[in-house]
Amino acid sequence: MNFTLSRNASHTSDHRPPRLRLWSVMLWLLVWQLGSQALGQEILLVSPVSVLVRLSSLIRTFPFWESIGFSLARISLGFLLAAFWGTLFAALAARFARFQDLLTPLILAIKATPVASFIILALIWIPSRNLSVFISFLMVFPVMYSNVLGGIQTTSRELLEMAQVFALPAGRTIRYIYISQILPFFRSACTIGLGLCWKSGIAAEVIGIPDGSIGEKLYNAKIFLNTPDLFAWTLVIVMVSLCFEKLVLRILDTCVRYLERM
């Protein structure tokens, strides 16, 4: 049984996104710089040098880190809630067909409805400070639910029959068969959901404008036509999102390696 877990888990941990090449980044920065110089209007397209100068000044202020902490805490919470409830509901849907039938219209409605509509509707009931938690959860939940459910439904019937023949306890069946089969689907859902939660969470903050959030800073930059601030905060969002994604996937891969040794 342990071999099954190792084989599937190793396949999951070996999967890596395309590598980010320095020369490619430098090339696109050069294109950006040349485009800014050709246009000659920084209010329309600011140069990367101006963005870095503005970012270096923002980093030295306390409100900068306070805004990152505000948004990071809420968007992370929304993602973790979606991962937990999406996995739990997928397990229940796989076990009870009626429950799956009940959730199907809701999942389809969430997938089809624009995120802006959810944000505006949610503002009626939810304070703007907590809006990004709910929107991040709502956007990631269908991804987690669908992927984990797909993993459960594609679990090898032969392995399940073998576990039944050898009277393997339910706990060991879940650990050695279901978890090993579901891990690739769960990791894929995390990879998609991590980017999605930041896009939707920041969009919720831009519309809800909670005090002290990254979304508020983006909104103010747009209102006052402060293009360097707009680009600087956008760069911050990208960097924080990438770091958050790498951290979560690293933790997940560490858990996989721990399960392999058990």
Overall mean confidence score, pLDDT: 84
Instruction: State which percent range the strand residues make up.
Output: under 5%
The helix fraction, in percent, is over 70%
Helix count, per DSSP? 11
Specify Rg, calculated over alpha carbons: 22 Å
Category by helix and strand content: mainly alpha
Distance between the termini: 11 Å
- Judging from the principal axes of the Cα atoms, what is the shape? elongated
Low-confidence stretches: 1-14
Q: How do the SSEs run, as a string of H and E?
A: HHHHHHHHHHH
For the report, how would you describe the main beta sheet?
none
Number of strands: 0
Quick tags:
single chain, 262 residues, mainly alpha
Report on the architecture of this protein.
The chain is mostly helical and 262 residues long. Helix 1 (2-14) packs antiparallel against helix 11 (227-261), helix 9 runs parallel beside helix 10 (214-223) and helix 9 runs antiparallel to helix 11. The chain has helices at 2-14, 22-39, 48-59, 62-95, 97-112, 115-125, 131-153, 157-165, 170-208, 214-223, 227-261. Residues 1-14 have low confidence and may be disordered. The longest helix has 39 residues, at 170-208.
